[in-house]
């Protein structure tokens, strides 16, 4: 049994090379779709899964990605958020089914490394948003992509990142004027 699992410097170098190769492949894919980079936020994917009012727009985006008209990405942080929301609000079976079907969707899943993780943490420290929100924002800014969402919490980021709003229209009721 001893020696069956590779470890030490050779494994570390192999993993680092694999990571560099994956980044290069991602950069090539991004360059190919430079004019149509889209980040799908967990709110949008949940709306599609639940067949909510925004589902047709998400369906259209997924179809465009399937046809190669755009590169659709999502952070693994946001995929994890979809998983736990489905598990909490529906059932663990529904959440597990989501994970089983996720690879069949035309979504490039991005696992953040140190720099994006810390960028998200800095944003979280300075804004009243969740870490998952910060992760989606960080990915969209890093890739100069449009962030598709309907989550009202992300409206505060519209000066930082380009949003495609697919949620309900937000109506702000004006306060009565004081006399």
Class based on secondary structure composition and strand pairing:
alpha/beta
Give the integer mean of the pLDDT values. 80
Helix content: 40-55%
Q: Remind me, CATH topology? A: Rossmann fold
Strand fraction band?
Answer: 5-15%
The CATH homologous superfamily corresponds to 5'-nuclease
Q: Helix tally?
A: 7
The tally of structural domains comes to 1
CATH architecture assignment name = 3-Layer(aba) Sandwich
| Strand order in space, largest sheet | 3-2-1-4-5
Uncertain ranges: 1-8, 171-179
Write the element-wise H/E pattern from the N-terminal end onward: HEHHEHHEHHEE
| Estimated radius of gyration | 19 Å
The number of strands is 5
**What does the overall shape look like?**
globular
Structure commentary:
The protein has 179 residues and is an alpha/beta fold. Helix content is 52%, strand content 11%. The chain has a single domain, classed as Rossmann fold (3-Layer(aba) Sandwich). It has seven helices and five strands; from the N terminus they run αβααβααβααββ. The protein has a five-stranded parallel sheet, sandwiched between helices. The longest helix has 24 residues. It is globular, with a radius of gyration of 19 Å. The N terminus and C terminus are likely disordered.
């Amino acid at each position: 049994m001893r020696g069956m699992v590779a470890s030490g410097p050779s494994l570390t170098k192999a993993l680092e090379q694999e990571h560099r190769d994956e980044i290069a492949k991602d950069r090539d894919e991004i360059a190919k779709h430079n004019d149509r980079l889209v980040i799908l936020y967990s709110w949008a994917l949940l709306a599609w899964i639940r067949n909510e009012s925004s589902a047709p727009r998400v369906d259209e985006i997924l179809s465009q990605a399937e046809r190669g008209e755009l590169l659709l990405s999502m952070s693994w942080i946001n995929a994890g958020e979809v998983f736990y929301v489905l598990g909490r609000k529906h059932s663990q079976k529904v959440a597990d089914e989501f994970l089983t079907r996720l690879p069949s969707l035309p979504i490039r899943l991005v696992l953040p490394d140190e720099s994006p993780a810390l960028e998200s943490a800095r944003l979280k420290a300075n804004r009243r948003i969740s870490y998952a929100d910060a992760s989606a924002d960080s990915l969209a800014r890093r890739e100069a992509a449009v962030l598709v969402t309907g989550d009202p919490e992300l409206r505060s980021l519209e000066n930082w990142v380009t949003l495609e709003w697919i949620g309900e229209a937000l109506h702000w009721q004006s306060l009565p004027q004081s006399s």
